[in-house]
Structures are given as structure tokens and as C-alpha cells.
Amino acid sequence: MKRLIPLLIAIAAIVSSAYAQGYDRILNIYKDGVLKHKYNVTGLDYIDFEKKPKLKVTAVVSPENSGTVTINGLSSPQYISEDSTATFIASPKDGYVFSNWVINGKEIPVENTTYTTTITRDTECVANFVSVASSDLGVSLQGNAFAIPNNEIGFGKESSFTISFRVYINQFNHDTYGTQLLNIRSALDTWPQSDWGYMWSQINTDGTFNCVARSPSIGNEISLPISQDLILHPKTWYRLIFCKEYNSDDGSTSFYLYLNGELISSKTRVFPIQWRSSNVIMIGGTAFGRAGLDGIIDDVRLYDLVLTETLIDFDHYPTTHLIGYWDFNTPSEGYDTLYSKGYNNNIQAKMYNIDVITAGNQNFISVPFYFTAEGH
């Protein structure tokens, strides 16, 4: 039997004096001394407490006319049963890009244009957009990998190159070994190359940083020495530069790693390198035992030479050898391919979700790019 409480008993003690003066009858529901709901019950003979109330859910965009936002696919407002879910979908207009969500005055740390939440009270949602013309944009990795497939650039084991990028770490969601940062590997490799790659760098669970390159055989590795005093922190922008230099005189390979313009490690070694044509240069993305990076990247540059320390220190980046360049200021929401703005504008970068099935078994799955304003 439904619990039907006569209205006069439920509210007499609360609003009898107000009702006598002709005001609406309001029922306040408290839990543990805290006001949880307030209902206008004027004209009702009884209240059905087993039927959950409908709560008002509104959604607006900011600034005006910058885009649209829906609630469960419908326009605002909607009335949704308590403890049911609401899915908000934001769509920017031309010239704008999605920035962030604000729910009941609280910023939500989600950069996806879709957000789902459980409704427990009247809810106001704001979808914030920013003008492309007034904001520098980046790509939100969301655990995925910004990827430059080798079949786009044609590097081989004797190629020298530099990759440079800015990265902002939102937060760490470490796996067993930490979080992946920069990695070069192929989905066609078998273990251990499939899980670790030609080179990999990771942020360890204690915030320290390491970078390793190796040949296909276990133990034939180059670990770049990096001070354990170097700690990478969330909510901080860094510029990372990785250089690989092939020395034709003796067949050796040198590696250089820069952080914020400072050389933090280098090493040279002669060892056999099996560079696969199916290699992919990746920023972020998961790997066996390493989480994907939750962060933003910007200003990705790929050179077909090794930048000198002088050029890096003074930020005098050359343009003649800049084969790949992505500044992300021309957003292509929903697409999984971005063309380079470097001198080879046919190079395509991808966004990959790395599906690590088991050790030695993984897939690189194309997913859309998501753009965000820097600092959001």
C-alpha cells in the first residue's frame, strides 16, 4: 500500500499561519536536520511519498550564442525524476570551442563535450565556450595518444629527428609503473617491444621521470640518466624535447632530452636498432602497466634533424627542417585526423586509444580529437 499522508497533517505545523493569510502551501522535507526539498503543494489533497518528485534541470551556454546545449537530447528546461541521470551535450558554433562545464556553480574537471550526472536536486548547468580568435587552444588527451605514424614521415634506423611539444598535466591516474609520456612503438611488434617500444618515457608513481631506448632484445637498453630530484607536477606546463641522432661514422646513436629548454640527459651507444616502418611516435596513451596521460598538449613540432642546444635554449626554432607542426588553433571537432602546418602539410597526425588487451597484444584505435582552451 502506498504511504499517503493527509496533506493537513504533513504541513499543518509548517505553514498553517502562512496558509491562513492566503499564501501558497509549501512542504519542506528535511533529512538529518538539513532541508532537502521544498514543494509547492497548494491544491493537493494528499502526497504520494513513493513517487519520486520531478526536479527542474536547466542548461545554458556562456557566452550567449556561442553554441548549444541539450539535456537528454532535448532543449532546456527539463523535469527529471530524482536520482535519474541527465546527459548534457554541448555543441560549439563556428568560431568557438568548448571549454568546460559548471554544474550548480561548481566547475567540473571534464573536458568532454558530453557530461552525465545523477540529479538529486534542482540543477543548473552552464556549458562554457571560448572564441577561437581570443584563445590559444590545445588538444585534450583524456588518456589517449597524439600519434604521428611513421608511414607519414618515412623515418628509418639511420634517421635523425627532434620532437618538441608543450604538455600540461591535469592530474595523475597512475597504473602499476606510472604514466606514459612519450613513446615510439608498433602495434605489430611482439613482446617485449609491443609493451615498451623502441623508446619510452614515463612519469613514475613518485613523480620522478625516466626515459629508455632499446633494441629488440631484453637487456640491450639505453637508460638516459635523469636526476631523481626532477619531479613533474600536475597543474604545470612543461616543454619536452627529445632528439635522436644517428652517427654515420661509427654507427652509434645518441639521445638527448630537454625539459623547459634545459638539457637534462644525454647518452650515446652503439647497438643494433630495429626501426620498424610501422612505428608510431606517440605523446601519451596507455601501455602495459602505464596509464594514459590526463592532460593537454600544444605546439607539437617534428624536425628531420637534431636541434642544437643553442637553438633550444634561445627558442630559435628553425623552419626549414620543420616537417610537422600542429598548433591546434584551427579546431576540427569530431575528426580523428589533423594535417600538419609544417613544410610537409600532407603529414597526418592521429588520436589513438591504445587498447592493451594482454602483454604483447594491443590495438591502436582511432578516436576523435577534443580541443580545449589552455588553462581549462
Provide an overview of this structure:
With 376 residues, the protein is mostly beta strands. The protein folds into three domains: 4-48, no CATH class; 54-134, Immunoglobulin-like (Sandwich); 137-373, Jelly Rolls (Sandwich), CATH 2.60.120.200. It is built from four helices and 30 strands. The protein has helices at residues 7-20, 150-153, 193-196, 309-313; strands at 4-6, 26-31, 34-40, 46-48, 54-62, 67-71, 78-81, 85-92, 96-103, 106-108, 114-118, 123-131, 137-140, 145-149, 161-171, 178-185, 199-203, 209-214, 221-224, 237-247, 252-259, 262-269, 280-284, 290-291, 294-303, 322-326, 337-339, 348-358, 361-366, 371-373. The radius of gyration is 27 Å and the shape is elongated. It starts with a strand and ends with a strand.
Write a brief structural summary.
The protein has helices at 7-20, 150-153, 193-196, 309-313; strands spanning 4-6, 26-31, 34-40, 46-48, 54-62, 67-71, 78-81, 85-92, 96-103, 106-108, 114-118, 123-131, 137-140, 145-149, 161-171, 178-185, 199-203, 209-214, 221-224, 237-247, 252-259, 262-269, 280-284, 290-291, 294-303, 322-326, 337-339, 348-358, 361-366, 371-373.
